Amino acid sequence: MLGIKFSQKLLLVVLVMSVAGCSYQQAYHGMQDAGKQQHCRDIIDEAERAKCEQNFAKDYDTYKKQREAVMQGERE
Question: Collapsing DSSP states into helix, strand and coil, what is residue 45?
Answer without folding.
Answer: coil
